[in-house]
Every structure is written in C-alpha cells, then in structure tokens.
Write a structure and sequence with these properties.
This protein has helices at about 5-10, 15-20, 30-35, 40-55, 60-70, 75-80, 85-100, 105-120, 125-140, 150-160, 190-195, 195-205, 225-230, 230-245, 260-265, 265-270, 280-285, 290-295, 315-320, 325-335, 355-360, 360-380, 390-400, 410-420, 425-430, and strands at about 180-185, 210-215, 255, 290, 310, 340, 380-385, 405-410. By secondary structure, it is of the alpha/beta class. Helix 22 packs across helix 23 (about 390-400).
Length: about 425
C-alpha cells in the first residue's frame, strides 16, 4: 500500500517533472536564507522527499531534521513557475515521519505537542483552563517587560501575549443594519486568547450590514495538526467542522485567522478520499473567506479618522496559501487619517509557523530578526497583521528588542475607527 508521501508525489508528478530546478524559490525560502544549506531549500527538500518515496534513501533522523526545519510558509509556491504544491507534499512527508515514529524532537517536546494537539486544542473545556494563566500573565506584565533573566523560551512565551483589550460594546449588543447572512468561524486559540478580535470581527460585520451566525459545535480547524503531520487528527477535526458549519446555504464563512482560513479552504482536498464528506467539504471550502477579503469585495463602511502611522506585515498563509495580497491593504486604506507606510519584505515569513518558533527557536529567531529590522526602518507606530501566530511572534520580537511599536490585527484598527465614530451605538446605527 502506498504511503501518504508516495501518493502526494504521484499527485504532483506532472508538476515535479516540469520543475527545471531554476532556483527561483531559494531566495524566498526563510530557512535557506538562514541556514544556507541546499537540503534546507524547497528544491533540496523535494529531492530528499522524492528519494524517500522512491526508496532510494531511508527516512532517518538526518532526513527528518531537514523536513522538520521547514516553516511551511509556502512562499516557494508563489515563486514556483511550475506550480508545485510544496505545502501539500510537506504535510504528507511529516505524516510519513509520524507513521515511522521518526521525530527529531526530544521526548518532553513531543509530549507537550501531543497533549496540545490531542487534548487541548480540540477540547474547549480543557483549553479554557489552560489559557487562564496566560490571561493572568498578560494583565500582570510589568511596564518594562518581563525580566531578561528568565529562560529565553519562557520570556518569549510571556512577551507573546497580547495586551489587555480596550473596552468595547459587546458584539451581541450591536444592532445589525442589514440582512446579508454570514457565518463566523471562531477557532480555538483565536477565541480563547484573542477573543477581543473575534468580537471586533462580529461588530464590524454587523456594522457592514450583515447578520452574523455563529454555529455551535465548531472546533479547532486542525491547521496545527496538519502542519505537524498528524493528518488523521486534522481530518477528524475537519469532519466536526463540516458538520457544524454546513447549513445548506451559500452564506460566506468568515475567518479572521490566516492559518485557519488556509486549511478550511483546503478541507475539500483534506477529505477527498472520504465518501461521506468529500463533496460536503469541497462545498464548504468554497464558502470560506478571510474577513479582509469579504470586506474588500464590497463598499467598506467609513468610520472615524485614526491619525496613525501604520505598516502591514502579510501572514504567509494569507499571502501565499490563500493568494490574498491586496484585501488587507484595501481595508486599512478605508480608515480615514491612517498613514500606511510600506514594510520591506512584508511578504516574507516572520518565523512563527504555528509552533515552529518554539520547536526551532534559534532558526525562527534569525528569521524574525530580518523582519524586526524592516519594522525599525518603517518607523511606524503600529504594525498590523491578520493571523494570531504572526501577531504573537511580532509582539514578542518588538518587546524583547525594545522597538516602540504596537502590534495589532487589521480588524482591531477598523473596530477602533468604528467605535470612535459611534457606529456601535443603537441610535447612531439607526440613522445611518
């Protein structure tokens, strides 16, 4: 029986044969830029994975190190003239490693990963108490930041936590001004650690004439599971979300986390071999839209001016995986008074990669260093992105390096503009 990696290689055979080894992907690969090893480039990893699939080399720890060192930012897919779906092959290569019990991580790290993926993320009743210490830490953070004497990984984790959110009206209290129905996907970490962003998303959708439905039963999207090669777990979660979100309509499913949106849009492929779910998952995937994409397709309601200098860092799984490159900028330009300054290398990875910044802290740190230098040069007051992992990575970086800049999600700025304009107040909303 063919392994997942062998099947993925066969599916991509025509594109792989079209590959001319041009190397256009190399300068776009963050790990190759840092490590300088051909085996840690997209074409080098493809060569290794193909050699394993064809039985020319045995999968071992040396092979696993090169496969696991990939951030899966998918920038190589944007650069590739042959259209090789590198992310799909990488996910199956890691699934092959899991099947063969080959793992470069130590036992403690593997245990933490297993507990997080198997128990915490899929189960809100377990995740909620696990996040409580993080809520406490974000409120207790000293003004000058956490002590540099703390172990590097612990300090990094603490500095990743977002600041306490500003007070806003409850999303439930905001009147809707139209009847266009949308479905909102909440996510797991997004809803527990960035619930204010989810609330802001709901308020913004209502202010833009939408009736927002939030179905019960939705769960973790499975992106981190797929990322790590636990495809069975990812498929289990995908089935639960199909059951929860499927409603027989074509109402857009709105997502505000780029990583979640990327996998939700690929549920059809993830479940293509499941006779019960294949067609349903494909229909569901076609309905998924990032919040910025959805807003940019229409006339964005104007809020109050924000006199602020802002720069935008594109999440890899929005820019490269979903190929949405302009919508966030259109949303930002719809905010009066905002001065939008370019960020050098805004399409390059920040090093987050799900939990990559914890499993490969040194490489992720080197990748982040380039991003932080660009943020310094931009001289903005706020750097915005559209994915919680990127937001946490950038948050930790600017705090530890002492860069005087705030980090926010795109919708947080639009939400602030709407709140200042009084668009969430019943009387003002009724007059519009």
């Amino acid at each position: 029986m063919a392994t997942p990696l062998q099947m993925a290689i066969r599916e991509e055979e025509e594109k792989l044969l079209a590959c001319i080894h041009c190397g256009l992907c190399l300068p776009h690969c963050p790990t190759y830029s840092v490590l300088g090893d051909e085996n840690d480039s997209p074409r080098g990893r493809l060569y290794l994975m193909r050699a394993v699939a064809e039985g020319r080399i045995e999968p071992n720890e040396a092979y696993a190190r090169h496969v696991e060192a990939c951030i899966v930012c998918r920038a190589c897919e944007t650069a590739c003239p042959s259209g090789v779906r590198f992310g799909h092959i990488m996910g199956t290569a890691r699934a092959d490693l899991r099947r063969n019990a080959i793992d470069e991580m130590g036992w403690a790290a593997r245990l933490v990963r297993w507990v997080a993926l198997r128990f915490l993320l899929p189960n809100r009743w377990l995740l909620k108490p696990a996040v409580w210490p993080m809520w406490l830490a974000r409120r207790l953070r000293p003004k000058k930041g956490w002590s540099p004497r703390l172990p590097g990984l612990i300090r990094q984790g603490l500095e990743m936590l977002p600041p306490p959110p500003p007070k806003r009206p409850s999303a439930a209290s905001v009147p809707r001004t139209g009847e266009r129905r949308v479905v909102q996907f909440l996510g797991c970490i997004m809803d527990e650690l960035y619930r204010d962003v989810n609330e802001a998303t709901t308020r913004i959708l209502k202010a833009n004439g939408c009736r927002v439905d939030i179905p019960a039963g939705q769960t973790c999207c499975g992106a981190l599971h797929e990322h790590a090669g636990f495809l069975g777990m990812a498929r289990q979660l995908a089935r639960k979300n199909v059951d929860a979100l499927e409603d027989g309509s074509d109402a857009p499913i709105i997502v505000n986390a780029a990583g979640c949106g990327a996998l939700l849009r690929e549920y059809g492929e993830l479940l293509q071999d499941d006779p019960k779910y294949a067609e349903r998952a494909a229909r569901l995937s076609a309905r998924v839209k990032d919040i910025t994409q959805f807003l940019a397709e229409g006339q964005i309601v104007t809020g109050a001016p924000l006199r602020r200098r802002v720069t935008y860092d594109a999440p890899c799984h929005l820019y490269h995986a979903q190929r949405e490159q302009t919508a966030p900028l259109k949303v930002l330009r719809a905010i009066p008074g905002l001065v939008l300054v370019p960020l050098r290398g805004s399409d390059r990875c920040c090093g987050s990669g799900g939990i990559y910044n914890f499993t490969h802290q040194e490489i992720a740190g080197d990748v982040l260093a380039e991003k932080l230098e660009a943020i310094r040069d931009a001289q903005a007051e706020t750097v915005v992105t559209a994915n919680p992992g990127c937001q946490m990575q950038l948050q930790a970086g600017v705090r530890i390096e002492g860069i005087p800049v705030n980090v926010a999600h795109v919708v947080e700025l639009l939400d602030e503009s709407y709140a200042a304009a009084g668009l969430y107040e019943p009387k003002r909303a009724a007059k519009r």
